[in-house]
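Sanity check

After download, print the first record. It should look like this:
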Amino acid sequence: MNQVFVSQLGRPQPDRWIPIQLHFEERAHDMPPPVQGFYDEVQQSLSCRNMFLSVSYEFHVADLALFAGRVPHQRVLQHARVVLGQRHDLEFDGSEQLVELPLGVSAMFYNLEKSRPNQGPTVLAHRIIMATMMLLLWLSL
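Expected C-alpha cells:
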C-alpha cells in the first residue's frame, strides 16, 4: 500500500501524483497483518483471519491556480488517506451457497480552506474513489 499513488488532478499527468497514506487503527505505524484463509476438510468450513469489513477514504483538496494562472480555481488533491477498520476473524460453513457480509465504505472530502467536510463530491473526487476502491479490491484478491 505504500507504493499506491493517486492523481492530484483526477486524470493522469506524469508529475502530479501523490501517495495514498495507509492508517491502521490497531498499530498506527505498522502494516496490518495479512489476511489469511484456511479450509478445514473435516468440518467443511472456511476460516478467514484478519479481514477488514470497513474502510474509510479521506481526501483533502484545495483550490489552486495552475498553469501560470491560466486555471485560477482548479480543485487539487493535497492528501489522500485510507483508514482501515477493525480486524475480524470469520468462519463460513462450506455448504452455504451464498454468504453475505456487511461491508462499510465511507468517503470524506475535506476542503483545506474550510474547517468542515465538503458536502458535494466533485467528478474528480468520484473518479479518485472509484479507482482507489477497485485497486484495493484487486489487492485483496
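If your output differs, re-run the checksum step. Summary of this record's structure: The mean pLDDT is 77.
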